[in-house]
Amino acid sequence: MRDFSGAFGGGAFHWDRFWEHSAGVALIAETMGRMLRVPATGSEYAAGLLHDVGKILLGHHFPEEFGRCLDLASRRQVALYEVEPEVLGTDHAHLGGWLAERWGFPEALRAAIRDHHDPGRAGGHQTLAALVHLADLFAKAKQIGFGGDRVAVCFTDDPAWRLLEAARPELKDLDLARFTLELDQEVEMARALARLGGES
After folding, report:
1. Tell me, what's the pLDDT at 158?
2. Which residues of 15-42 are buried (b: 16+ CB within 10 A; e: fewer)?
3. Contact 125/46 with Cβ under 8 angstroms?
4. pLDDT above 70 for 150
5. Phi and psi torsions of 43, nearest 5°
6. Which end of the chain is more exposed for a tag (fewer CB within 10 A), N or C?
7. What is the set of domains in the chain, with CATH numbers?
8. What's the sign of the alpha-carbon dihedral 88, 92, 93, 95?
């Protein structure tokens, strides 16, 4: 698959940066679930890693249209999934959910991939989809890899956070600044360990 030039801010979309983002979201989703003590499914890492699998389908089979989506999202400074229906008639999340179903993934994983931009639609798997969504936002804020867009959002303003609060009401009293600092430290430590492992 080819990389795409002309994406956000005149930069480029490279698949190695895409995989860095996906691995970051996987790590963050798993870490966030553990730190917040939300009901675990055991699928947090896999859901984070595969949340954008629909983009691979787009990049491989519809490269021109995908490139147009990247440029539109960049020019408008909006999330990629907001412009994809305009160009493609659907978005990468729904395509990813379709792929996950074809591959026979468990329902929790399919729902998290399909609904990671709208976790409220994930039925009985809203908590997992919300974790993946928030992990995606955190990875974008920390500029871990590049998934095709950069959109800043405050956690507590996001509907996904309210879904987590519904699962664990005590999160309403969480010191969010402290939590994000601790999450950042955990993620950086894990990334440093991964780099060390890669050097051996």
Report:
1. 87
2. eebbebbbbbbbbbbbbbbeebebeebe
3. no
4. no
5. -105, 5
6. C
7. 4-193 (1.10.3210.10)
8. positive
Report the alpha-carbon distance of residue 121 to residue 144 in Å, rounded. 27
Say which amino acid occupies 39. Answer: P
pLDDT in tens, 51-101: 999 999 998 888 889 989 989 998 998 989 999 999 999 999 999 999 999
Residue with tokens 């309210």: 162
Task: Please write down the HEC assignment for all residues of 62-112.
Answer: CHHHHHHHHHHHHHHCCCHHHHHHHHHCCCHHHHHHHHHHHCCCCHHHHHH
CA–CA distance, 87 with 37 (Å, rounded to integer):
39
Which structure tokens are listed for 95? 């395509």
- Which of helix, strand or coil describes residue 6? strand
Distances (CA, A) of 54 to 39, 94, 102: 26, 7, 12
Mean pLDDT, to the nearest integer, of 129-152?
Answer: 82
Residue 140 is predicted with a pLDDT of 86
CA dihedral 139, 196, 11, 117 (to 10 degrees): -20
Across the range 25-49, mean pLDDT stands at 90
